[in-house]
Design goal:
The complex is a heterodimer.
Chain A: H1 2-25, E1 29-30, E2 40-45, E3 48-54, E4 69-75, E5 78-84, E6 98-107, E7 110-118, E8 124-131, E9 138-139, E10 159-164, E11 167-176, E12 179-187, E13 194-200, E14 207-213, E15 218-224, E16 231-238, E17 241-247, E18 258-267, E19 270-278, E20 287-293, E21 300-301, E22 319-320, H2 323-331, H3 333-359, H4 364-386, H5 391-427, H6 433-447, H7 452-460, H8 462-510
Antiparallel strand pairs in A: 1-22, 2-3, 3-4, 4-5, 6-7, 7-8, 8-9, 10-11, 11-12, 12-13, 14-15, 15-16, 16-17, 18-19, 19-20, 20-21
Helix pairs in contact in A: 1-2, 3-4, 4-5, 7-8
Chain B: H1 2-5, H2 16-31, E1 35-40, H3 47-65, E2 70-74, H4 78-93, E3 105-107, H5 112-125, E4 130-136, H6 140-150, E5 154-159, H7 165-171, E6 174-177, H8 179-189, H9 192-222, H10 228-233
Parallel strand pairs in B: 1-2, 1-4, 2-3, 4-5, 5-6
The chains are: A alpha+beta, B alpha/beta.
């Protein structure tokens, strides 16, 4: 029987562990087309389409992209062939987590692609790649433009580049009071950029999703107001405002409930529009359509487009490895166990204190209080959650929860202050060299939090204040160094050891080498 | 692990805190008072709790041999049954299952403050001789350990929670830092295969450290803004 029990526990432990280990090591899906998750952020140069796909685009809001984006290229006359434009590199931090929305320019017979790179620090910066043949790209080792933090904390998530005969303007998204506006920067060589501030904003709370300049000072803007569907309009930009707005009617695009991005390419009397959109429900993958015509009124999908209006069918879906789903289903087991576990805890509490009350003794009083508090809180919570409008239950909830539990918890927490002082007093008694170093560093860190030397200087003379300020500044440098370098190194070392130790422990449990619970 | 199975012996340096567990149990035996073992305030999804429970197994067996009562205050209800099983198993091994008292494994509260207050109360009321804190803790670490110190309890703590380590160092007699918590059960068991996993852990750590150093050097020489050579030449 004992052997059977042990085998059962080992089997369960190993089986469940194996599911998570496989889910962790194996990809969630295998195979599938390179752009199976969607296509967006496109630009067209001649016959070649440069666009973005993403690993995690599916299921996200239509216009939100994050880590895992990458750039692709495909020729319009051979849409079955797609290839990566450039790959992330371990040694290139500025676009390590992804690249998207390329704008490709023809410069001096070669091609330059500006795109948004998601760095290893998750900040978005504008990056530059160069190519002589339009196929093989070489990325500059650093980003060319890092937008001011004031415009957007994590950097722009949309941008386009305008070429005015060698004077380049990058127009990028910024955040202002919760909505997206546009800022711009200028350059003459695509490498050195000067930020120029705000470029265009719509009346609050409208957000600009996309902007595409036209000839004659006009532009096409895609915008969104709250949760409403997007609008696509033609108008003019005047002193950061979008004026003379007129809705732009596009031909029916069955793949898209709404358009989230539009790029206009005008050349030789031909108007081409790359429109990106998707469905709000169901298959929400973004797709690209190429519309063409002599004017905006005569735009239609180009020959060779898919029946749904998109430029090319998205890559075939991948095959699930099932382990992620399996791990997810197995994880559903946890709340069930926890619910039973909580019941077990409650029973343990009731039995323990019930017995104490029955048995008597000097500590019986505390057990009575515990049981009364437990039952009162359960009763009040059941009453309050079922009658939230009832003043009585509201008052009772306020009394027990806000006026008793919270202050009691705060009192316990307040004790920490006293204990910290007494623990610090013991720790900082200088008996050894180590304790002396510890005390000196602690004193430095504490005293340099405030301008101590300035204060001391002010007690001596006015001229001593500036000397005190210089001392404070120097001491503050030492404090910062000790916290950021020395302390961080130790912290990382402890964390690193604990991390490897946790893996070893997990292995011991998974392989049932540690027989604590199974024996 | 494979080498250990083949009979190779690995050496683990002496860890004073773990050696002191035996002394702490001995003290409780001499005083005829119980010990408190807290496996932390996290759930079973935290490796530190599992490491703590592994040490509980050893401590419980030793205490049962010495007829010392083990009190286990718990913050997470799902740990109750496992901790109870571990304690029961210790009694079963010593053929004294009847002496097992289920109420010695106590679920106190999921609230951190209440858990701390309950543990402090337990240490104070039961006149505990020694206390073991092996697992993951929040701010309650100092509340419990400082009170234990004031009550003259011999305390041994082990945690990988960086910010609680100083608190335990100040308030406890012995503190195991970070990975020592995970090595404790293998150290106590003296099982060659488990000891082999600790040795494997050290080897893995060395390999990862070498990779980090190699990666740092590679990053320095491949990123132009960090490259001292191109920096000096002003590329």
């Amino acid at each position: 029987m004992k052997r059977f029990r042990r085998a059962l526990i080992w089997g369960f432990t190993f089986g469940f562990g194996a599911i998570w280990v496989l889910a962790f090591f194996l990809p969630s899906e295998i195979g599938g087309g390179i752009d199976r998750h969607g296509a967006f952020g496109a630009d067209l140069v001649g016959n070649r389409l440069y666009y973005t796909s993403a690993v995690r685009a599916a299921g996200k809001p239509l216009s939100v992209q994050s880590r895992g984006t990458y750039l692709l290229q495909m020729d319009l006359d051979a849409t079955r062939i797609r290839q990566r434009m450039l790959d992330s590199s371990f040694f290139r931090g500025h676009d390590y987590h992804g690249q998207y929305r390329p704008t490709v320019l023809v410069v001096d017979g070669g091609l330059r692609a500006l795109y948004i790179g998601i760095g290893s620090d998750d900040r978005r910066r504008i990056c530059l790649a160069e190519s002589s043949d339009g196929t093989n790209w070489r990325v500059r080792p650093t980003a060319v433009f890092d937008a001011p933090v004031e415009s957007s904390v994590s950097g722009p998530d949309w941008m386009t580049v305008v070429d005015n005969g060698g004077n380049y303007t990058v127009i990028y998204s910024a955040t202002e009071r919760g909505r997206r506006i546009l800022h711009y920067a200028t350059s003459t060589n695509l490498v050195d950029w000067v930020d120029r501030g705000a470029f265009l904003r719509l009346p609050e709370p409208e957000s600009i999703l996309s902007y595409s300049p036209l000839s004659g000072g006009r532009a096409v803007v895609v915008s969104r107001l709250g949760t409403e569907a997007t609008k696509i309009e033609v108008g003019s930009v005047n002193e950061e405002q979008f004026v003379n707005r007129e809705p732009l009617s596009l031909p029916m695009l069955p793949f898209a409930d709404e358009i989230v991005d539009a790029r206009i390419i005008e050349s030789g009397g031909l108007v081409r529009m790359l429109a990106v959109g998707g469905r709000v429900e169901g298959d929400t993958r973004l797709r690209i359509a190429l519309l063409e015509g002599g004017s905006f009124d005569s735009l239609s999908s180009v020959a060779g487009s898919q029946p749904d209006g998109s430029i090319a069918a998205l890559g075939s879906p991948a095959t699930s490895t099932f382990f992620h789903e399996l791990a997810g289903n197995a994880a559903d087991f946890v709340p069930t166990v926890m619910t039973f576990g909580f019941g077990l805890g409650l029973i343990s509490l009731l039995v323990l204190h019930g017995r104490r009350v029955a048995k008597g003794g000097e500590n019986r009083f505390y057990s009575v209080i515990t049981l009364i508090a437990l039952l009162a809180m359960i009763a009040v919570q059941i009453g309050f959650r079922n009658n939230r409008e009832s003043q009585f239950w509201k008052d009772m909830n306020e009394l027990l929860f806000m006026n008793m539990q919270f202050p009691l918890g705060a009192t316990m927490f307040g004790l920490l202050a006293a204990y910290l002082v007494s623990a610090a007093y013991r720790a900082f008694r200088i008996r050894t060299f180590d304790a002396a170093v510890l005390t000196a560093m602690a004193a430095l860190v504490v005293l340099t939090q405030v301008p101590t030397a300035q204060f001391v200087g002010s007690l001596i003379s006015d001229s001593a204040v500036s000397a005190g300020a210089r001392f404070d500044a120097a001491a503050s440098e030492v404090r910062t160094w000790s916290l950021l370098i020395v302390n961080n190194a130790v912290q990382t070392a402890v964390g690193f050891g604990a991390f490897v130790g946790a893996i070893a422990m997990a292995l011991r449990i998974w392989l049932s080498l540690d027989k604590t619970a199974s024996e | 692990m494979a080498a250990a199975r083949r009979g190779r012996q690995y050496f683990i340096r002496r860890i004073a805190g773990i050696d002191a567990i035996e002394e702490a149990v001995g003290r409780a035996t001499e005083m005829g008072k119980p010990v408190v073992f807290s496996p932390g305030s996290a759930g079973l999804d935290n490796m530190q709790t599992l490491a703590g429970l592994a040490v509980l197994s050893w401590v419980a067996k030793r205490c049962v041999q010495m007829s010392v009562r083990v009190l286990v205050p718990l913050r997470i209800a799902t740990v109750v049954s496992i901790a109870g099983d571990i304690l029961r198993e210790a009694f079963r091994e010593a053929d004294t299952e009847d002496a097992f008292e289920p109420n010695d494994v106590r679920f106190l509260s999921e609230d951190q403050n209440a858990y701390a207050a309950g543990t402090i109360g337990m240490i104070s009321r039961e006149g505990v001789a020694s206390a073991f804190y092996f697992g993951s803790y929040g701010f309650e670490s100092l509340l419990i350990a400082e009170n234990g110190r004031r009550l003259g309890v011999v305390q041994i703590a082990a945690t990988a929670d960086y910010f609680q380590i100083p608190f335990f160092i100040c308030a406890c007699d012995y503190t195991l830092i970070g990975e020592e918590l995970y090595a404790a059960s293998a150290y106590l068991s003296r099982d060659p295969v488990q000891v082999g996993t600790v040795a494997g852990q050290d080897i893995a750590k060395m390999v990862i450290l070498l990779l980090i150093v190699a990666g740092s050097v590679a990053a320095i020489f491949t990123q132009s803004e960090l490259n001292p050579v191109t920096g000096i030449l002003g590329r």
